Amino acid sequence: MLFGALCTVALACGAAPAGAAAPSPAALAAATTPADHEAIAKAYLSEARSLEKLALVHRNLAKIYSEPGGKPWEAAQVKHCRQVSADLTAAAKTERKLAAAHEQMASSLAK
User: Fold this and answer.
1) What does pTM read for this prediction?
2) Low-confidence ranges of the chain (pLDDT < 70)
3) What are the extents of the domains in the chain?
4) Which residue from 61, 67, 98, 99 is spatially nearest to 80, judged by alpha carbons?
5) How far apart are the first and last CA of the chain?
6) Alpha-carbon span 50 to 90, nearest angstrom
7) Given phi > 0 = left and psi -120 to 50 = alpha, else beta, which region is 21?
């Protein structure tokens, strides 16, 4: 029963984000035009959305594991899932800040 619930939550929340990837170091080093920086910002936003989806999966897993009547090991899973969710949320915020910085760079180069 628990396995089925976990699978449902994971799939419903998009546990396997579609190919989001942060920009490569080469792309960052080569960025000189507004279009370059806009593409980098878009990649960072995509990565942030993927991280947010994974954070939601772990938040929902923590809720499932914390239901009354659970097994003793589930308490450790609740703590783990909450920490993973918090870490992923923090990483997503960082990705959004990087996207905003590159949007600003694109804007200042367009002037």
Assistant:
1) 0.78
2) 1-20
3) 51-111
4) 61
5) 59
6) 13
7) beta
